[in-house]
Design goal:
The complex is a heterodimer.
Chain A: H1 3-19, H2 21-41, E1 49-55, H3 60-71, E2 75-81, H4 84-92, E3 98-102, H5 106-112, E4 116-122, H6 127-156, E5 166-173, H7 180-202, H8 204-211, H9 214-219, H10 224-253, H11 262-286, H12 290-307, H13 320-326, H14 331-344, H15 352-372
Parallel strand pairs in A: 1-2, 1-3
Antiparallel strand pairs in A: 3-4
Helix pairs in contact in A: 1-10, 2-7, 2-10, 3-6, 7-10, 7-11, 7-12, 7-14, 10-11, 11-12, 11-14, 11-15, 14-15
Chain B: H1 2-18, H2 20-40, E1 48-54, H3 59-70, E2 74-80, H4 83-91, E3 97-101, H5 105-110, E4 115-122, H6 126-156, E5 168-170
Parallel strand pairs in B: 1-2, 1-3
Antiparallel strand pairs in B: 3-4
The chains are: A alpha/beta, B alpha/beta.
Chain lengths: 378, 171
């Protein structure tokens, strides 16, 4: 490999990119729109879950309980229904995602036996929301329960200390306020780079075929390895630009705390870019039309990167077979790395495993691409 | 009009049935994608990797930990012997939840005082963390309730009817 030839090839590619604005549009517009669309579009934080209340008793106690729900930030009472039928209709048309029912003997049971139940009806269509809403509802009821206990004990002149044996003191690390954006946005950067990177280079060889410049390239006295690296280098520069843009946006616009080192970020990002660009290049070598190559690049990267990388859906909750498949989805390694760099402030030593996977993957793809591209016209 | 429409439709079907690539694309990718992504896209939280640090080594602390082991929501992957080890486990993502029981836990319980269970959660994935915390609370509450009833029975010889065991439960 000669540096002079490499430079010449890279320069040629830069000129080609400049004259065909398609790849420039992909490089500059796609990350921008995707960051906004998905950064705001995906939000798992639940606040003001709409609930319906059905007070079958109408007592002081039942109203007190509903006041607890009203006061909670997580619930908003949108409707007070009078019959079960009304509640079913409200749930059916999606007016509320949960219903809270107080039975007619609520306060009586509370006074007589010391225990009473509250019924919660949850719309399980979205099981995640239902699950979290259930947790919040249990917390609200338990805080109400506490108040009742304190009041009951007050009358007897005792204190709560004697009764509540165990308290959970929880501390959340890395994402202290449990903001879902803080874990989605860094993963999003990885998904966007996987998508855009493969798109960019998927056009490069196919373009030579469609423009009829393949003959020229074949007759140029350069090796196919030089062609590959010469073509990849300008895109690496574009990739850096995209990565910098996305990462700066994550840190400044979406205000995700960045606790790692810039050096580790630069190193791992470059490695990941090298990998995704080579994958696009490999697709480009195999498929001779620009549209076809771009389509394949989209199919291969978009859904797998979204669903199998651990970007939103945790990998350790997937069935074992699917978990094995995720090792093939190279974005998962970079998702792990970026999340750890942003939220945990991990260094290179802690991230050695995903980095090694990326290195092996990159070498394999580069070797495959180098073998696949033969300077031949048929 | 209908006859022409029909003719074109038949022609199109014939074309697809003769095109091997089209037949493949129509059948295989959708099935594969439904299978893989259908299983991948899940927010359920089971078998959360959990580290345990028990300074108390009492019957009570073991009972509490056993409740976590018994539920399918938590898997104990690490029994640590120091706070430092716990920190390392969470930092290195080997466990997402850590339970720390300090010395004197059982004593506080027996005296009828408030005993703390310290829980550390890796909040990186806020959704999983939130749901896991909910399960921690549920298990801890179950333990507390049972213990309170037990204690009351031992002290007073009968279950108390003070309106104080648990006022309202969510069903």
């Amino acid at each position: 490999m000669r540096l002079r030839r490499l430079k010449a090839l890279a320069l040629k590619e830069v000129l080609q990119i400049w004259r065909d604005p398609r790849s420039l549009v992909i490089a500059l517009l796609l990350p921008f729109t995707q960051m906004f669309l998905f950064g705001y579009g995906i939000n798992l934080d639940l606040k003001h879950i709409p609930i319906c209340t059905f007070d079958r008793e109408g007592s002081q106690q039942s109203q007190d309980l509903f006041k607890h729900f009203q006061a909670s930030l997580y619930f908003a009472i949108v409707e007070n229904v009078k019959t079960y039928q009304e509640m079913v209709t409200a749930l059916d048309r999606g007016a509320c995602s949960a219903g809270v029912v107080v039975q007619p003997d609520f306060s009586q049971r509370l006074n007589d036996t010391g225990t009473a139940s509250v019924q919660a009806i949850l719309d399980g269509t979205d099981d995640n929301t239902a699950n979290i809403a259930w947790g919040y509802a249990a917390a609200v009821v338990s805080s109400y329960s506490n108040d009742v206990q304190v009041a009951a004990l007050d009358r007897q002149g005792r204190t709560l200390q004697q009764i509540q044996p165990l308290s959970v003191q929880s501390r959340v690390w890395f994402n202290e306020d449990l903001v879902s954006r803080n874990f989605i946005v860094p993963g999003l950067v990885a998904v966007i780079l996987a998508l855009v990177g493969a798109q960019l280079t998927s056009l490069t060889i196919a373009r030579e075929w469609e423009r009829g410049t393949m003959e020229l390239l074949v007759s140029t006295p350069v090796t196919s390895t030089e062609v590959m690296f010469g073509k990849l280098l300008p895109y690496l520069a574009l990739g850096w630009l995209d990565a910098a843009f996305c990462l700066v946006m994550a840190a400044l616009w979406f205000e995700v705390p960045f606790r790692g080192t810039l050096f580790a970020l630069f190193l791992t990002t470059t490695l990941f870019l090298a990998l995704v660009l080579s994958i696009g290049y490999l697709i480009s070598v195999l498929i001779h039309s620009q549209v076809g190559a771009s389509q394949i690049a989209l199919v291969v990267t978009l859904l797998p990167a979204m669903l199998l990388s651990g970007y939103v859906f945790p990998i350790d909750q997937m069935p074992p077979v699917v978990q094995d498949l995720t090792y093939l989805m190279y974005a998962r390694y970079y998702v792990t790395i970026v999340k750890a760099l942003f939220l945990k402030g991990s260094g290179i030593p802690e991230l050695l495993t995903p980095i090694l996977f990326l290195v092996v993957y990159a070498i394999a793809v580069v070797a495959l691409a180098a073998r696949a591209f033969r300077k031949r016209l048929t | 009009m209908l006859a022409r429409l029909l003719a074109i439709m038949i022609k199109e079907f014939l074309e697809i049935s003769r095109d091997e690539a089209a037949r493949f694309i129509l059948v295989v990718p959708p099935i594969l994608q439904m299978l893989i992504f259908g299983y991948a896209a899940s927010f359920e939280v089971y078998h959360v990797s959990t580290a345990v640090l028990d300074f108390d080594h009492s019957q009570e602390s073991r009972e509490l930990i056993a409740r976590f082991t018994a539920s399918n929501r938590f898997d104990i992957v690490k029994v640590a012997s120091s706070q430092h080890e716990i920190n390392e486990t969470i930092d290195g993502s080997a466990a997402a939840v850590a339970l720390v029981i300090h010395a004197g836990f059982a004593e506080l319980l027996r005296k009828g005082q408030n005993a703390p269970l310290q829980v550390i959660v890796d909040g990186t994935n806020s959704n999983t963390a939130l749901i896991a915390l909910g399960y921690v609370n549920t298990i801890a509450e179950g333990f507390a309730q049972e213990y309170a009833t037990d204690l009351a029975q031992r002290v007073q010889g009968f279950a108390p009817n003070t309106g104080a065991t648990r006022a309202a439960a969510l069903v």
